[in-house]
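Morning - heme C inputs below, output right after.
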Amino acid sequence: MLAAVCCGQADAIPAAPASTAPAKTDGGVKGNAEAGRIKAESERCLECHGQPGVEQGHSAGEDGKFARLGGQQHAYIVKQVQDFRAGRRKNDFMVMMAASVSDDDVADIAAYFAAQPAMPAAIRAETRGESRSAGQHGPAAALFRQGDAARKVAACATCHGAAGEGIAGMAPVIGGQGRRYLSQQLHNWRSGERSNGAGMREAAASLTDAEIDALALYVSEM
Ligand code: HEC
Ligand code: HEC
């Protein structure tokens, strides 16, 4: 974890033991999904992130910049909000939103999103506007499943699951996430702007722009 603190952000990392713990933590607090449904609305999360299963907000399609949260892991959502607060992720909107909600509210809101069906294929199919192309997917599929040992790119599937469904305690759901959002995150790790996942910095470090594009398309259609 500390190895990931490379870019002059050391001051922003709290000294609490939780910050050195591996991966995601929600402290075991699971929250209340029904309370979270109301709070997701009143705290305005749905305005940007969309109503899971109904519409996916601005996350969909080529212009989607906002992550889909429906079906995402509880602990992962909680950790990301903490990471925006702590400066390990940067985004003006989310830093503001993360600072404005209490930990209890975040636990409830995360419970609401986690209880929703995962990023539904029907909505993806409607909004992606691309046709599946085996040729285009070939190299991305190989990277996803096997990685590239020569460049020390680990197989994405090892941590994220064969269909990007996520592995609890290991890595979040990425299959069906918005294409542009996925691409943005990979760029952010490669550049160091996102510094909250040590495994991901390595995974993204040697990807080319073309590989990031291809992976984002492939994963968004899973
Ligand atoms: C004004 C728009 C906006 C609002 C309102 C908003 N968000 Fe976000 N959120 C974003 C954007 C943009 C991103 C992606 C940032 C990035 O590119 O790293 C994001 C990312 C996230 C992520 C990371 C998702 C992932 O897959 O890693 C979480 C978790 C999150 N938001 C939770 C919330 C919660 C909880 C609320 C309500 C309290 C909320 N957001 C309100 C714009 C918003
Ligand atoms: C060593 C395990 C590991 C490998 C290998 C790995 N990832 Fe990840 N990935 C993670 C973890 C852990 C996170 C969450 C980091 C955090 O807590 O912020 C993550 C997050 C992500 C995210 C951000 C999700 C979101 O909602 O913001 C994307 C996109 C992603 N990985 C794509 C990939 C791709 C593509 C590959 C293969 C090139 C890959 N990952 C390989 C562990 C891994």
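Note: Residues 23-24, 67, 79, 143, 153-154, 156, 158-160, 171-172, 174, 177, 182, 185-186, 196-197, 199-200, 203, 215 surround heme C (ligand 2) (CB under 6 Å).

O.
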